[in-house]
Amino acid sequence: MANRTGLSPHVLRAWERRYAVVAPHRSQGGQRLYSDHDVERLRRLSQLTGRGHSISRIASLPLEELERLEEQAPSAPAVRRAGEDESSAAAELVGEALRAVRRLDAEELQAVLQRGAITLGGPVFLDEVVAPAVEAVGDGWSRGALSVAKEHMSTAVFRRVLEWQLGAYRVDDDMPRLVVATPPGESHELGALMVAVSAVGQGWGITYLGPDLPVVELLAAARDIEARAVALSTVYSPNDEKLLAAVKATREGMPKRTPLIIGGAAANRLREPMGASGAIVLDSLPELRAQLRELREAE
Q: Which of 241, 234, 229 shows the shortest CA–CA distance to 273?
């Protein structure tokens, strides 16, 4: 079922129990039996929650209504503004996630994060759960409050959940293409994955190339897929001169009409020289989503 719907067994069971999204029959051996209608319904729900719809609001909708929602313009998804209740729920999830990290409980951490993605929707989950939790883990590791093992475990789980979100979206041939990676020497890829998930929620087709990508490979990929834009994430720079040289070479190797977007702690620290090289330096995921909407609308 995970391959057919994009939902993990944990999420599927939670949706059945809490929201009665489907009512599968049972085999004589007690196994759940899903109809084609059930599978299609679950697949649509998976895609829509990844785009920012709350499962609690769409769980009871008929399949025809889910199809209508999915066909809506991706540049204007039905995402609720984060209110006090959502912010409070997000803060609680961050606390639960950090407690799971401290216990080295990967299974619980993944369950907490997937629950947040389902109940809060894409943008709120990324902005108010993933971003602060990742920052807290990094800060704890740098201060010696978290072990290397706990930092590595949490990074692996965050990566799995973000990749799960990314895979929940349907990519159409007519979507503008965005190449996402980290520059040479940058091994921290969670920021790039958050960029990819944010972008696909805005109706972009993503070519995700991972961390520590040589400039020549980035440029070749952008050329091969006729990328509408390129986005880089850089959190930690062991060598500022090499990072700036890579950004400059990337910008000079791309067509002028193709924006180079870059974000992350290192990019913000080097905002002025990066901007001088022609890159668009952004502070946050909301800024990224706004920039991508502008690019789509300008087409």
A: 241
Domain 84-167, CATH 1.10.1240.10 — does that match?
yes
The whole-angstrom separation of Cα 235 and Cα 233 is 7
Contact present, 114 and 15 (Cβ < 8 Å): no
How confident is the model over 164-223, as pLDDT tens digits? 988 877 667 788 999 999 999 999 999 999 999 999 888 899 999 999 999 999 999 999
pLDDT in tens, 67-104: 888 776 443 344 444 445 677 888 899 999 999 999 99
pLDDT above 50 (res 298): yes
Q: Is the pTM of this model over 0.85?
A: no
Distance CA 160, CA 244 (A): 30
The CATH number of the domain covering residues in 2-71 = 1.10.1660.10
Q: Give CA–CA dist 247/253, Å, rounded.
A: 10
Q: What is the pLDDT of residue 236?
A: 86
At residue 289, the 3 state secondary structure works out as: helix
Res 232 pLDDT > 70: yes
Q: Is the dihedral of CA 297, 281, 91, 164 positive or negative?
A: positive
Please provide the CATH number assigned to the domain covering 177-297.
Answer: 3.40.50.280
Question: Based on the number of CB atoms within 10 Å of its own CB, is 178 exposed (0-12), middle (13-18) or buried (19 or more)?
Answer: buried
**Which residues lie closer than 8 Å to 175 by C-beta, 6 or more apart?**
74, 203, 204, 205
Let me know: does 34 contact 1? Beta carbons within 8 Å: yes
DSSP percent split of the chain into helix, strand, coil, nearest 5: 60, 10, 30
